[in-house]
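re: ur question from the group chat, yeah i did fold both. here u go
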Amino acid sequence: MKPSDPSVQFEGLGGLARFRVRLSGSVQGVGLRPAVFRAATAHGLVGWIANVEDGVVLEVEGKKAQVEALLAKLDDFASPIAVHRIEAQPIALVGEAAFEIRTSSTGSLNAFQVLSADLGTCEACLAEVRQPTERRFGYPFTSCAQCGPRYSITIDLPFDRERTALSSFELCSECKRQYESPSDRRFHAQTIACPKCGPLLEFSIAEQRVETGVRALAAAAESILQGKIIAVLGIGGFQLLADATNPDAISTLRERKHRPAKPLAVMFTDESQLQSVCVVDEVEASVLRSPAKPIVLVARKPGEPRAWAPCEAVAFASNRIGAMLPTSALHALLCDRVARPIVCTSGNLTDEPLSHSREAAKSELAGIADGILLHDRAVVRPLDDSVVQCVGNDVQLLRRARGYVPATVARIPSGRTVLALGGHQKSTFALGVNAELQLSPHFGDLQSLASRERLRREVDAWLKLTRAKPELIACDLHPRYASTLLAEQLAAEYGAELVRVQHHHAHVAAVLAEHGRQTSTLGLAWDGAGYGPDQTLWGGEVLLCEGYRYQRVAQLLPFALPGAALAQREPRRALLGALHVAGLWSHAQRLTDFDEHELATLQRALERGVQAPLTSSMGRLFDVVAALLGLCSANRFEGQAAELLMQVALGASSQLGAYDSIVVEQSGAIDWRPLLHEMVAERERGVASESVARRFHETLVRLGVELAERYSDGTVALSGGCFQNRLLLGRLLTELRRHGLTPLTSWCVPVNDGGLAVGQAWIAAQASLTVQTPMVR
């Protein structure tokens, strides 16, 4: 964002001008100060630049044209993923002798600075560690002003070395010379280090140190090649590494980690190795190369496995792989030595938070890893790897963490400080100060006590870091979510107003927040399940949203889920509930693997409504169809049935049209029963599963267009976990536009439950501006 009104002119004697500039956003730790210093000096300008708690302040003086040229280029001086606002005002001339980088200042109240996200190692640093003549040859903690850890090592603000995990590492004379040299790319690089003065590696087996330094790296690589599982302390915490081409190693990893089927991410040495086994388009490649270095879901190449291809056990039936390139010099050097794809998955026990300390690794990962590669630079703020997928030319963040956090995701229409606690799965929280809304990294599900304790610690840490005191605290409507209970506790502690937000209203509001849309908007909230005000499980909702109010104008016809929570894990149970309400129970035994006794018990439960809650969930309708086609009777990981259904549908002709049998009643009930009748008939006639799956997707696309045309003013927001389905999302975006409608969806905020906190904060901020009665029915 360029400074507003560039001709704000203050001309002093001799055509000189001086401006005071405040930059806010991700402006610390991105090489901004050194870049401005060099540019100002080159243009003969004087003044100073310094980090402050809530951003960067610059005063620059010189010839008016040169000053304005510098201000116009401020956006270009920071990292490409920095987001900042520039406010410039003319001030009186001072007339310093030179331009300098001043010592950072502290002490401002309620400062809210967006730290820079952790940046993947740049190409210049990677070339340096691979060059034998360089003094940092083979050094895994090499970085410069444009790359390296930021958020994960920050203790306090402003971002300077003494307030990071590197504070105890005193610079050697050579590093100090580079740090102080304006011509060096490590000028004022806070993470500068080398083998003489920086962190060092240590490799241990069974808690016995084996090697240190470069030899530790070699020993860890050799262990991976021998089929061992190695825990590595990465940027944001521990990762578990294993040879992706070794079926026995992957089988062992799955068994020890209790992760039987969920796909595992794979780190490739370079793009050439990745493209030998996967289809990677230019959009996907650009994301893989970006400083964020996320995991990107890409397609496997069809046909026989290529040399060094990840084994089947990495992703089993899935035709996609979560691919990533090395995220740091440590990972790059390790990949160079192994020279084959490496599984790289989170270092934690099932349902537990990410391990990130030496002590945690010993107690939590000893039963999983054969060896541990760690170092003596602490991880202050643990965070997992980010996950994205590309839908056409757009990049959709599915898990927002390393490389993307922190950053402003929206501006909220309120001056009050807002804290939103999100949901129970894919936990995140959002914090809004001075209208800037930030989303925390992904924490995972809140199943365990350790996960809930970590959420509380991270909330406290963010509040301390930003000096913020929440005035509004938002949470889900569900009374027993761990996040709801924490919200209630925090509201009491801070004397804050508590705002409870319906789950799917928050989903739609997250899209509106990202796009800054405050006018009345129709939202399709197609999701797994969320607590409705009628105490049923919502998830196939059509909501008209305005401000903090919503009206439910349409929804899927509800059906029962026999076994309650168990039915959300077993698509065959959802199928029974759908067959029951559709009058198709006579097909139950042929279409499921339940025996007669089990079916009789479940039928009684459905008839009596015992342990069989009603749901209007679109996610469960996907389960119904997946079970009907025999693709998945029980999920081995969340969303498996829907993923398999999409994969099968992608294998069918794109020319297949929609079924005509889904009906939107005048009451707003979306009656899917005729559709189920038609699909059951086709299934029993032996119609190919690919055809049925594709036509089901096309039917939902047609439904989405019909709902938008009937209820919207031309704009429709798409949110909820079902829109992680790239076939459904891509086709619906295309068809809505073809019909002259404007679709909105979340790209930088996850459409799944990871984005709920953003929607909750948006609604709470809107609600604080008015006292009207919510429009809910």
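okk and heres the other one u asked abt
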Amino acid sequence: MLKISVSMIVLNEERNIGRALASCSFADEIVVVDGGSTDRTMDILGQDPRVVPVRRQWGGHFGEQRQASLARCTGDWVIRLDADEAFSDELERGIRPLLEGFPSDVSAGTIRQCNLVGSESFYSKTFDVQETVPRLWRIRPGIRWEGNVHERPVGIEGKVASIDAYVVHYGFLDRNRYGEKGSFYSQIPGSGFRSREELLFREYDIQPRPARSAVGKRVPPYASEERRREPGRPRIAIVRGPNLSLLEMRNYEPLTGEFDLTAYTTATKIFDMGGATLPVVKMPSDPSRPGYMEGLEFALFHEDLIYSADSASMFSYQASVIKEKFGKKLVCLQWESIPFAHEESNEMRELKAAVRKRTDHFIATTERAREALVLEGVDPERITVIPMGIDTDWFRPDDTLRDSCRQGPGISPDGRFDSGTVAKRVGEVLAKVLEDPARPADSPRRPDVSPPPPPSNRCAAEDALPGPGAGTSPTPVVQNKDPGYFQKERREVEAMVPPGASRILDVGCGEGILGRTLLEKGAAEVVGIETNPAVALRAQANLSRVLQGDVESLALPFEEGYFDCIVLADVLEHLRDPLSALVKLKRHLSDSGAIVASIPNVRFFDVIRKLAEGRWEYEEFGILDKTHLRFFTKKEIEVLFSQAGLELTGISENLSPLYYKLPPAHSGDVSFGRVTLHGLTREETKDLFVIQYLIVARKADSEARGRDRRVSAALESGDLESARSMLEEFLEEHPLDADALLRHSDLCSRLGSREEALADLDKILLFHPERKDALVRKAALAPARLAQG
């Protein structure tokens, strides 16, 4: 029987080790090297009879500690696990049959990382990657760990398989310890980190955690030690980038009894903050984007309100994105008194518009600053004028001189402008915004909203590029989009592209970031279609070929069936006639090819709420993007693809984070604004929180449909062996096709091959544990197997 060893190193891991052990139900032995723990780590390890404890004092060398564990592993395979990790339930249940089924030339495997960020409900999409260092390997002589930091096993010979399943990392959730790790790494040469902050504050792209990363029920939840909200003390983040100053902070220090305040600046701050009484967090900055604060999303995840400054600052734009994604409140201090300042730049104009739209309330430092905001379109009710004050303990004015100076402009004798008075007025605004239920963060949460990238090196010739050919009526070119709109990686779309796709057409390719990734992963050719001339020009550096024009009118110079995959990421809603476009594109799709599409869901709860209030407000991006010509619900998507002769073979969703706040025992009633819906199923409720559907479709008259017809004909004639052979031929190329496995299992059962039938069902349930048809059949077959035994 296959023996599996788990290899671990630990040092004071009493908070984590229980989760790690609980996720190792498949392990025959767990070899743990302890570096001298002084907490309860060893006591917890001693409760598991599979643990082989090894005490080896920590000497500052990770590779040597791991080697000490590996040297004592006696299994056929070894799997590395850190104490702050846990195997996903999918991997935990499937790892043994997976290893047993590996061909002899596969000697190692890598898996995916799910790095939890903020809470157990969210993770870092940026770090959702296939590991480059093997996570498991066959135990063979000559394999050993090398490296002090960023250590890796060397001496592995043979193929390395990529296992598409998650190991879950909890380390980012403990910010204090994670920060300590950053301080430790910064002292090690070659670690790649020069400071604690460089490790802690990175671009995580926090998104809802994938369902496939769920851990087993035996794994205990994470016990957070983050600062908790004290009664009556909401958490306020004062975000100022490099502009944080002690003089301004004097206006907020008196509020520490009412709010839990933290100021956020950059390591390249302008002003000296010596003597500050508020906590100050210094964050890395991006030299190519002045004012950009790296890792700000991570830093502000647990804050209740973000207090930023100036609609033209990059960090205010970042704050507005965070407000959109996580439902924060946003207040912006406005110093600028010149309306439309800096808006000669398209990027700055779009940035300021986004901040103005998303900010819950502005504090203008002068009447002129208020007037500038009003001229730029801000509702006057969203603006309060509060001049910044001074600390009268620092500056003690002469009373006589003060009174004489006030008489000229007619300033009241009791208007002081001292920081204490200003703090009280600012506190009133912050409290009102926090308590106001009428102004939640109510714009649709886009999972792929991102700050604008560094300005590109545009040349004048790009603006002179011609549009689509004369005589056509193209879909409007998106000329004024945030540059980041064309530069998104779209990893959720990438994940749905069939792994064997060789020739891919990316319609609406933007700058070709997705296509470039697909080429790097092994695609032979990625062709892009893009309407925007300047963007299409930049895409040429990333793709095999780029066609500039409107896909509805563009003649496609490809033979029928040329592409293995056609990508339509946020495209169909921009077309005048999506059905005709799908039929046109289908001609160039191979019989076994797939169409991958992402489509916004107009049934999103916030759109319904606005309709109930008589509003249908077009936006710069999102579900009600001003360039959208068509709108879809899930049912309309199904109808559209069916009419085009395509069948949906896969569908998933990008969900609003608010969905994960619903209680498990949800009643079926949902209220938002003036709307209340009763008696909803869980699936119907979920549909209201879907921002965007991600689908995979194939030709309805494809090879699979033809195969099904042939199999059905064989069954009707009673030729079970022929039907079985046809399915087995198909399964050789598609070993994890759940529907084919289910039919094959049924045939094997009818032909008396119960073990084969059960093996098929085990494969299905490994990757689709929720399939009731497979569960029912397995329950029916299992007693028969026991009876035979």
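fwiw on the second one: Confidence is low (pLDDT under 50) at residues 438-487, 784-789. The first helix runs from residue 17 to 22. idk if thats what u expected
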